């Protein structure tokens, strides 16, 4: 009997910083446990990765979401061009959570509604309480706030990989 492959989907618009590369490499080393990283730098690529994971029957065990995604102004990649925000705002991640990952109305991504989400942000004014309406499995970590933030991400990855 074969075990289904799992994947962690990561949306990060600036993945080339040293600490983010190190975290990416950490997750990629989980391949021997049947866990793969699908890393996207934009919303269109995120959609492609989710479609590919579903087609390949991978289990999305976690979503890492940079709350600020530059260069996007709507969710047209998810057939929701009616969901818009101003250019350069930090709303992209919030809109993805609300209208894609936690929306249940005729949503082809409804299977992701219980998948744990790790929100990464450089904004210190973002907290988990902002996401309570979407359930308890959304965690917020401030990037670069202190030396322990990378350890928090690794601990979160370990937890979702084992679930």
What's the gist of this structure?
It contains four helices and seven strands, in the order E-H-E-H-E-E-E-H-E-E-H.
**What's the architecture, going by CATH?**
3-Layer(aba) Sandwich
Assign the structural class, choosing from mainly alpha, mainly beta, alpha/beta, alpha+beta, or little secondary structure.
alpha/beta
| CATH first level | Alpha Beta
- Strand runs, count: 7
Assembly annotation: single chain
**Radius of gyration of CA atoms, rounded to a whole number:** 15 Å
How far do the termini sit from each other? 19 Å
CATH topology: Rossmann fold
* Number of structural domains: 1
Tally of contiguous helical segments: 4
Overall geometric form? globular
| CATH superfamily placement | Response regulator
Order of helices and strands: EHEHEEEHEEH
Mean pLDDT: 84
Which bin fits the share of residues in helices? Answer: 25-40%
Largest sheet: 5 strands, parallel
In spatial order, strands of the major sheet run: 2-1-3-6-7
Textual characterization of the structure:
- The protein has 163 residues and is of the alpha/beta class.
- The protein has a single domain, classed as Rossmann fold.
- It has helices at 18-28, 43-55, 91-101, 149-162, and strands at residues 6-11, 35-40, 59-66, 74-75, 80-84, 117-121, 138-142.
- The chain has a 5-stranded parallel sheet with strand order 2-1-3-6-7, sandwiched between helices. The chain has a two-stranded antiparallel sheet with strand order 4-5.
- Strand 1 (6-11), helix 1 and strand 2 (35-40) form a beta-alpha-beta unit.
